From TrEMBL:
Protein name: Ketosteroid isomerase-like protein
InterPro entries assigned: NTF2-like_dom_sf, SnoaL-like
This protein's UniProt keywords: Isomerase
SnoaL-like domain boundaries: 15-133
Residue runs in coiled coils: none
Molecular function GO labels: isomerase activity
Amino acid sequence: MTSTTGTAPLTASMVLSAADRLIDAFRSTDTDAYFSCFHPEASFLFHTEPGLLPDRAAYRALWSRWVDAGWRVVSCESDDRHVTIVGSTGVFSHTVRTTTEVDGIRESTVERESIVLTRVGDELLAVHEHLSDAAEVEA
């Protein structure tokens, strides 16, 4: 993780850098790099799952099941990006277009995502992620 200097004011650039690190790790299906972007107590609310994943360990267990089944990310593009900063917390929202593959079968999705990041020492870590189906949002 890149140092964000814990005493410097949080900036949009810092939030975007942390979000890009997370997205790049996801795009690479790099489990360790991806989950290092999240606080251990981070929560996750995905429209594809029946309920809240209450912490990083729960999400990582789900991710591991996907990967063990042959799942991988083929591409992940982020646009319509927006950052809101409140004190030492940043909210990053965007439209994310993702293509994944399992056993040669590809699936593409368009979703809206919000990621809440907060300063933990000299790092910005995600503490909540919410993913919605863009078609549901537009309806």
